[in-house]
């Protein structure tokens, strides 16, 4: 899927070197097709890294995607330049009149705060409410998944005795569900979080389907029965070295982190991590775009 991204977006250089299919406005307007319009609400502090990770996965199927990057106007990240936000991002107030085929709400390293204590919680809830009528399907990641479960379904998060960090094994409850079609019976995925949600509460909610669980890391992929909301509690989008970078950051900050589980070869942080989840990351995003966005969205919005 060629992604239409600005020529000067820093992620573009990285993705071009990886041979990801990109295009700009000039080429996009010459194609007589209806592109998918995807909005990404990027809540992560290091926005450029998250842009690269998500755009890489959106660029792996056969349709054209136009991407709008969004940041919260009620809270400005300290880890990205103002010029980057002004050049490549928009705010909710500028785009709320539009309709989108798909939306991604990322994670955020604010799990210790109750949802209502998060600076941009009122703005986020307004966006999630807006998504009910203006977005065909929304994919929520990690803290974004917990926020969606809380706002839409009343399922709260709870603090863990220690952080879940590492690469964990998962199973699939029903391989005929299109979101997990093609998944192995056992597959790996990264997790990195200090809070969790109750598997029992999810299973008891008639509005939700629990599609994938890890014996060590808990509920992983949850989908609403109307297919509008997909919640992924881990980070399939992570690069090979993201968990290593987080581990070293926490060490530097004096947090005395435990070694991410099942991540470094021989549990030796001096050895290079091996990416064992990339194919399922591409498969999840491809299935979401095909079956829950492209196949469901109207050709022309009302």
Structural class: alpha/beta
CATH topology description: Rossmann fold
> Looking at the structure, what is the overall shape?
globular
The first-level CATH class is given as: Alpha Beta
**Which residues form runs of ≥5 with pLDDT under 50?**
28-32
Mean pLDDT: 91
Rg from Cα: 18 Å
Binding site for substrate: 163, 192, 249
Family: Belongs to the MetA family.
GO cellular component, one term: cytoplasm
Keywords: Acyltransferase, Amino-acid biosynthesis, Cytoplasm, Methionine biosynthesis, Transferase
Describe the overall structure.
The chain contains ten helices and twelve strands. With 302 residues, it is an alpha/beta fold. Strands 1, 2, 3, 4, 5, 6, 7, 8, 9, 10, 11 and 12 form a twelve-stranded mixed β-sheet that branches. A hairpin with a 3-residue loop joins β10 and β11. It is globular, with a radius of gyration of 18 Å.
List keywords for this structure.
single chain; alpha/beta; twelve-stranded mixed β-sheet; 10 helices; globular; EC 2.3.1.31
Describe the structure concisely:
With 302 residues, the chain is of the alpha/beta class. It has one domain: Class I glutamine amidotransferase (GATase) domain (Rossmann fold, 3-Layer(aba) Sandwich).
Q: What's the arrangement of secondary structure elements?
A:
Elements: E1 3-4, H1 10-17, E2 22-23, H2 25-28, E3 36-41, H3 47-58, E4 65-70, H4 82-88, E5 89-90, H5 92-95, E6 100-105, H6 121-134, E7 135-141, H7 143-153, E8 157-172, E9 186-197, H8 199-204, E10 208-214, E11 218-224, E12 229-232, H9 242-252, H10 278-294
Parallel strand pairs: 1-2, 1-4, 3-4, 3-6, 4-5, 6-7, 7-12
Antiparallel strand pairs: 8-9, 8-10, 10-11, 11-12
